[in-house]
């Protein structure tokens, strides 16, 4: 990866009703900040008895190779309670965790990893075969396969030596090794689907925390420090409590019943920030977007026309959406990638992403929709997203597109996406990944996660093959200039299709009572969680 920019190599109508379940959970919570666990505490000196995390999801599952109902909270809690070859630090930089030494061959096609003498929380030794089976399960799951598309094979050389053979050079391999999908567990307990299903009800851990209390889909999840881990976690216990609406999370933070929340309403900036509470935009390495269904179950003929899709892209007012709905805390996008701390970012939308109603109307006329058309747009009911979608509805009305908004709880989104059970037309969502190329791979690679959701990324489609080739080349070269040139070509072709329409860089308004690096997702990031440890993850 490249030299760090801001400490990393490549970074980058809410409800006002406090629900009964939210109140009950807040009363049960007991936040744990103290003299050695507050906004001013350094990780090296931190001692936190308990951190209480208020989240929008119930923890539904800890196996990242199987679908679950807990959204990013499942991923976060799995991450801290599983072993990792590499682990993301607080700045989303992949660091060696259970790996003591990495050796790369001169041609860059063989990577040998030497493992620490580590044990799981039940005393079982960590061995290289655990990583082999994890990789095999990842491949079988088809979860974000673009991340490991360059891997030819992984094998155990001996108990603590792992050999990875690559199809071509892979400068970003450390990010794949740090992925939530590469979690390590004792191989003999997860090497069949039946074994894995039973094991993940109460898994052991080679990460900084281990599971203490977990019943899938309930309001409380508790992890505690793993005394078998090679470093000492600064948090003795992490309690995750389900607070389903933003006002309940804000109130809990104000009252001191939680220490950290990930999604707050904009009012928290004035009402909650204080000398003991920091409210801040937590950026993600991802992009707010409109995704258009390109699969055979697309029932709206207008959306099958690329001219119509480009017209939608030109008609939305990105600046207004990010300024009004998101409080101006994150910028509109003029390209596909996230635009925070990203040296690969390129502007690929005409007029640098500015609204162009004349061009939009011209495209609609050419496509035979001069008088507009009707469509239904789905969006998950997260904080600030209803406001953003209301603005888009108004924007598109200016060119005759009549939008019916259909809000859905997070738990319902799998029926449209991973399970592909319910037809849909267009959707507001976000696309995150640890690097710009991995983010673009989600959209445009053969087998990309979001590509699959919308019916693209198909090896028999010449356009998809061309985009995949550009991505593969960009993910092979190390020259920043050459990477940018390749991604500029890719994004120009992506705009022509516009089945993904970028809006702005993702963020969540977050609040915390403890200092950075103690207990929160990396910045940027939402799919992972970081627990401070002493000594820290190796920096070399």
Automatic annotation (TrEMBL):
Ranges for domain Solute-binding protein family come to 104-436
Question: What does the record give under GO molecular function?
Answer: peptide transmembrane transporter activity
Q: Show the InterPro entries listed in the entry.
A: SBP_5, SBP_5_dom
**Biological processes per GO annotation:** peptide transport
**Cited Pfam families:** SBP_bac_5
Q: Which CDD domains does this UniProt record tie to the protein?
A: PBP2_NikA_DppA_OppA_like
* SUPFAM superfamilies, per database record: Periplasmic binding protein-like II
Protein name as it appears in the record? Unannotated protein
Q: Which source organism?
A: freshwater metagenome
């Amino acid at each position: 990866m490249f030299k760090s920019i801001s400490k990393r190599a490549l970074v980058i109508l809410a409800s006002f009703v406090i629900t009964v379940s939210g109140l009950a959970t807040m009363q049960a919570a007991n936040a744990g900040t103290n003299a050695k666990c507050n906004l001013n505490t350094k990780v090296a000196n931190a001692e936190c008895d308990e951190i209480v995390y208020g989240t929008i999801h119930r923890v539904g599952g800890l196996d990242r190779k199987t679908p679950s109902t807990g959204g990013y909270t499942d991923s976060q809690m799995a991450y801290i309670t599983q072993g990792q070859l590499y682990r993301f630090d607080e700045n989303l930089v992949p660091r060696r965790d259970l790996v003591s030494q990495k050796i790369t061959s001169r041609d860059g096609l063989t990577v040998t990893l030497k493992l620490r003498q580590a044990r799981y929380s039940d005393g079982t030794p960590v061995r290289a075969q655990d990583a082999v089976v994890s990789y095999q399960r990842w491949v079988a799951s088809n979860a974000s396969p673009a991340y490991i598309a360059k891997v030819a094979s992984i094998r155990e050389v001996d108990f603590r030596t792992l050999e990875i053979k690559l199809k071509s050079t892979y400068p970003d391999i450390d990010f794949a090794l740090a992925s939530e999908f590469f979690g390590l567990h004792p191989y003999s307990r997860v090497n069949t689907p039946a074994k894995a299903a039973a094991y993940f009800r109460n898994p052991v851990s080679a990460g900084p925390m281990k599971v203490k209390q977990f019943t899938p889909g309930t309001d409380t999840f508790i992890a505690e420090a793993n005394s078998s881990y090679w470093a000492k976690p600064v948090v003795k216990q992490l309690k995750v409590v389900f607070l389903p609406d933003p006002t309940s999370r804000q109130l809990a933070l104000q009252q001191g019943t939680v220490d950290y929340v990930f999604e707050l309403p904009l009012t928290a900036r004035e009402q909650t920030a204080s000398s003991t509470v920091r409210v801040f935009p937590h950026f993600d390495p991802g992009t707010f977007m409109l995704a258009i269904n390109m699969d055979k179950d697309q029932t709206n003929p207008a959306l099958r026309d690329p001219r119509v899709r480009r017209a939608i892209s030109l008609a939305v007012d990105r600046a207004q959406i990010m300024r009004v709905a998101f409080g101006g805390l994150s910028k509109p996008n003029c390209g596909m990638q996230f635009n925070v701390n990203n040296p690969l970012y390129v502007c690929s939308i005409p007029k640098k992403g500015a609204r162009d109603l004349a061009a939009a109307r011209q495209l609609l006329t050419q496509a035979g929709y001069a008088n507009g058309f009707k469509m239904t747009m789905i969006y998950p009911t997260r904080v600030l997203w209803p406001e953003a979608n209301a603005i888009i509805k108004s924007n598109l009305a200016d060119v005759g597109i009549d939008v019916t908004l259909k809000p859905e709880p997070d738990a319902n989104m799998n029926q449209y996406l991973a399970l592909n059970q319910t037809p849909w037309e267009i959707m507001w969502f976000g696309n995150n990944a640890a690097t710009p190329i991995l983010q673009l791979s989600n959209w445009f690679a053969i087998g990309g996660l979001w590509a699959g959701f919308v019916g693209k990324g198909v090896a028999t489609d010449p356009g998809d093959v061309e985009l995949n080739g550009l991505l593969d080349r960009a993910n092979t070269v190390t020259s920043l200039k050459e990477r940018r040139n390749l991604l500029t070509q890719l994004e120009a072709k992506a705009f022509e299709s516009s089945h993904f329409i970028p809006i702005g860089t993702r963020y969540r308004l977050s609040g915390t009572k403890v200092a950075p690096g103690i207990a929160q997702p990396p910045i940027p990031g939402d799919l992972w969680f970081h627990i401070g440890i002493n000594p820290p993850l190796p920096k070399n």
